[in-house]
Amino acid sequence: MFDRYSPFVRPYLSTRSLEPENQETPIQFIRNEIVNTRLFFRRNHFSYPTLTFSNFWIPVKGSVATPLMLLMQDLYNFKSKTIKVVLECSGNKRSLFEPKVFGEQWEKGAISQGIWRGVPLSTLLKLAGISENAKEVVVEGYDYGKRTDLKGVYSYTRSLPIEKALHPDTIIAYEYNHKPISFKHGYPFRLIVPQWYGMASVKWIKQITVIDNSFEGPFQSIDYVYYPNKDDNKGAYPVTKINVDSTIQKPLHMEVLDTGKHLIQGIAWTGGGYIKEIEISTDNGKTWTNVLVENEEKTPYEWTSWSYEWSVQNKGEYTIIVRVTDSHNRTQPKIPFWNRKGYGYNATDKIKVKVE
User: Fold this and answer.
1) What does the pLDDT profile of the chain (356 residues) look like in tens digits?
2) CATH number of the domain where residue 285 is located
3) Where do the Oxidoreductase molybdopterin-binding domain residues begin and end (predicted)?
């Protein structure tokens, strides 16, 4: 799974905060398409919930013909779906914004990928019989706590438009990499919403409610909203699809190399379509070279691994840049879209190295 490391030296998560626990995947050391549970990034707004017997039931209610109360075994009995999905926190790379923004200062590791198994949310909604006026599906988690900007206690709750909720690949997952989801990643039930940032994939599902209006909870209407202006909310709009993006995993930023051949490696991903083009520059953007893209065996929701053999004979300092384009012709910008809460950073990835 890893190269250049003995069995006794293994990477671990990088800690951003302890309470609540927020930790990054050591993405620069991942050499596999699947991230194991131990290295999957952790994003929390509150302390971990306490599991009780009630956690193993999921109510489906609201604007439905037949409210449901489903036990874990009931979900196991439904036809399941297995999908490989990249999950990325919308705050990934927040620390790279200029000017700086407040919030968890994620570097490049608030992203992971693996295989999820569960029941399509649409299966439950159709069984309950959603009303013709249904507009959104609200998913509430068991995690809760106080917010610094509001009075009172709030649970982590998000909604999906009915179309996204009914998408066959939006699932209620109970397995990750062919094992039960770990407690810290949402056991026993976690929503998985492919191609949307991770805030949509609610953990520790408490209940599902179909509504015929727009949900206005704070994690929907205050957080996870793009605010283009520092001092007002003009032009604000919700965070949804993952932006086209890439990360250089090898070599490391500010690494010292010798002359000769070096393998530059990384990943690229997008929230719509597939990665169509990957370009690399080893001279700070003066010239660009296309990197071979192999997507034949890729599923729609996973990242694309890439590599480029760089031959360097001259000593000195070099800036390496990667930019990618997806099949919807979305290309990484040179400068990211700055927004007050620091979401969706996806500028061309850049590192510096020194050759001696």
Assistant:
1) 344 445 567 899 999 999 999 999 999 999 899 999 999 999 999 999 999 998 999 999 999 999 999 999 999 999 999 999 999 999 999 999 999 999 999 999 999 999 999 999 999 999 999 999 999 999 999 999 999 999 999 999 999 999 999 999 999 999 999 999 999 999 999 999 999 999 999 999 999 999 999 999 999 999 999 999 999 999 999 999 999 999 999 999 999 999 999 999 999 999 999 999 999 999 999 999 999 887 777 889 999 999 999 999 999 999 999 999 999 999 999 999 999 999 999 999 999 999 99
2) 2.60.40.650
3) 45-217
CA distance 230 to 262: 42
The whole-angstrom separation of Cα 340 and Cα 73 is 44
Rg for the chain, CA atoms, rounded: 21
Domain membership of residue 312 as a residue range: 245-355
203 within some domain: yes
Angle ∠(156,159,92) on CA atoms, nearest 5: 65
- What letter does residue 218 receive in the DSSP assignment? H
Domain identity same for 169 and 24: yes
**Spatial CB neighbours of 297, under 8 Å, sequence gap ≥ 6:** none
87 in a structural domain: yes
Q: For residue 23, what is the enclosing H or E element?
A: strand 21-24
Distance CA 339, CA 21 (A): 24
H helices of 199-253, in order, are 218-221
**Residue 137 burial (CB count, 10 A):** 28
Angle formed at CA 298 by CA 28 and CA 194, multiple of 5 degrees = 80
**Distance (Å, whole) CA 114 – CA 198:** 13
240: nearest Cα among 220, 255, 262 = 220
What is the domain count for the chain?
Answer: 2
